[in-house]
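Researcher: Please predict.
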Amino acid sequence: MSQIIVVKVGGHATDQLTEEFFEQLRSWRQMGKQILIVHGGGPQISEWSAQLNLPVAKINGVRVTSSQTLKVTQAVLLGLVQPALCRQLSAHGLPVVGLNAGGQPVLVGDYLDQAVYGEVGEVTGINRDYIDHALADGIGVCAPLAVTKSGKNLNVNGDVAAAAVARLLGAEKLYLVTDVPGVMVNSHVIDQLSLQKANQLFEAEIIKSGMQPKIKAAFDALKHGVKEVKITNQLQHSGTSLSVKQLAI
């Protein structure tokens, strides 16, 4: 059975990590689990784009990425967010490996829909040997940036990237850590969410576009073998659970 846990940490959440977060990572490592963190940086990217007078636009929760916005995205993720996250992990005594700093492509991808989204991709493969080697040494930290077979860089939605990585690694669990305690309906957290219920909430526009890619990515991971997926703001909180059993409801 796989011993890999993938944790997606959103851009907001990277500034709000608690002592409990690091304690949970430490506990997992003591249990022999391997951990890969996929981090976002959406708020930071939007802030820097606005300062540079670049348009900030999303379609269905996916950032429209021009070539200029892609450069900002790379600079923010690799120059600001990832180093800061690695420093936090290291400061808590956790061994950490910044995967994107290794000089090798981590995620392989292709264009999602260049005419609509620009330089945005979807993950089609991973550098498995490189990731496995890194996770043997410590907690891996990865930005949601993919490289095409022809060497072009692409921005990938962080939740979509994390779900794809979890699927391709055959991960045991996927945690999508965000700035809300779970999937919210009428100010309450839904404890369990089935695919049928999620689609009903999408159609009723109760779940807005920002959360939709997260939930769709979560179910994609479940459909492809990840045993457990949670959307939460704390690793120790139950948040919203999506399980294989829920898919048939």
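Model: The chain has a mean pLDDT of 92.
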